[in-house]
Each structure stands twice: as structure tokens, then as C-alpha cells.
């Protein structure tokens, strides 16, 4: 099932999302499948649950739509993720977001991160990612923290974008 994607301005994108309880009513397998389907229908490389209106700590990534060697085989489900640490030099890359169509801006992010999360089978992982993988995770992780990529821009850039955003 393809969900409609929530657009900028919807308060759900500004909520700090809640952990999913393993014993909850959420059919995680179905939800994950629907999120991949929704993301692929929009040619996205990442999608977070708040973007389909659910304030849950869940995001999916799949780089297969890109030509990028680093992430084209990077397909992963992140449940109840917590970034433990970010490190390394910050670097700029032009990002976009399915919830903020038409806007692309350079965003500075740390090169490396350590993250703890569950996969769709409720196995706990603790891993280190860097480069483009780290960037995709950081963008989606922001979504479950109620943060959008435009929040990382300078005050001037944000003012210039304001007309476009409203
Ligand atoms: Ni996004």
C-alpha cells in the first residue's frame, strides 16, 4: 500500500517520534513493506514514519534508485534508532526531502556515526556508518527527532527559502 507523503507544514514532522513497543499492535512487517513501496513510488532513498503521518521511531533506506556505488546496495530498516555518537569532519552535500519537494540545499553533516537500532526481526544492532550511508541515516534520523534538513541551513539561507516554503 502506498501512503500519501506528508508535506512540510504538517505538525507530525515536528514531533519527536515515540519508540515502537515490540508487543504493540503495529504490524511492523506490513508497515515496513508499505514504507519501502511508498518510498520507491517517489524514487526516494529514505523514508521515515512521520512522513506518512506516524510519529514512530522507524525509517527505511534503500539506495537502489541512485547510481551511487556507496549506497546502491544499502537497504536497511531502522527501528527505535538512537545515534550514540557522531564524529569526523563535517562535509557538505546537496540534500532533498520527499516532504519538501523542489528544494535542494547543501547540508553540513558529520562524516561518521555510531547507531543502535532494531531491524524488522527485532534483532538489536550497534553499528558504525560513514560517508553517504551515514548521511542518509542522519537525514532520516532527523525526521524521527522532528528535525528537517532545512533546519541545518544558515539564517540567511533560511530567510531566502521562506517564500518558497510557505
Ligand atoms: Ni527527508
**Sheet with most strands: strand arrangement:** 1-2-3-4-5
Taking the sheet with the most strands, its summary is: 5 strands, antiparallel
* Helix-strand string: HEEEEEHH
Give the integer mean of the pLDDT values.
96
Low-confidence stretches: none
Count of alpha and pi helical runs: 3
Helix content: 10-25%
Q: How many strands in all? A: 5
Straight-line N-to-C gap: 29 Å
* Secondary-structure content class: alpha+beta
Unique bound compounds? nickel (II) ion
Q: What is the 3D form? A: globular
How many structural domains? 1
Radius of gyration, CA atoms, in whole angstroms? 15 Å
CATH class assignment: Alpha Beta
CATH superfamily annotation:
Peptide deformylase
Q: Examine the coordinates and then state which fold CATH places here, giving the name of the CATH topology.
A: Peptide Deformylase
CATH architecture: Alpha-Beta Complex
